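My hope is that you will study the record closing this message with an eye to the fold:
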Amino acid sequence: ITGCELEKLPDGTVKSLTVFDEYGFDGEDFIAFNSDPQQWIDKNPKAEETKREWDQQTERNQFLQHYLQTCMHWISTFNNTKKSIQNQAPPDVHVFVKKAPDQSKLVLSCLATGFYPRDIEMNIRLDETVLEKQTSSGIRPNADGSFQMRSSVKIDANHKGSYDCLVIHSSLTQTRPVLTVWTINHQTFNGIAAALVIFLPVIGCCIYQ
């Protein structure tokens, strides 16, 4: 049996208590490694000769001690990964539009916020085709430990079509996408497309992995 004994602290971290490498023979305890003095403990009279031989193998014992001590790192990594999975938060997705300097254009933006963990993919699409020349804010932290990201793209104010925001994040576990599209209204008001002042409710298209 090879492994380590750990204590989980209130803050979720782990503390190493001991590591062990133990062997049995014929259903009885035989010999065990003591990592502190790097010596073997004979737990059976039949193990005395084996103990003397293995105590002389200093390089092997040093390697074994290092190998066993990495047990704490492995379990800490597993514990943190498990904690991250349990604490996942889905993104809250919003789509909005504003006037561009070129009045024939609009700036369509998609904002995903409140998600955890950090990795996320986001694309603005026209008729389910990803648009080119999108600009991104990159992934930024929120004060509560979650993250946010914004992508924007210039679109033709007079182009007929349906736009949506496609977001892929590990917290999204459903297989059916949720989609509400943003559609340009071609009526005009004071020479500016009505879409500039009408904010239709939009939910990002969420594809779950």
In short: The longest strand covers residues 14-25. Residues 186-209 have pLDDT under 50 and may be disordered. The longest helix spans residues 58-86. The domain at 2-86 is CATH 3.30.500.10 (Murine Class I Major Histocompatibility Complex, H2-DB; Chain A, domain 1).
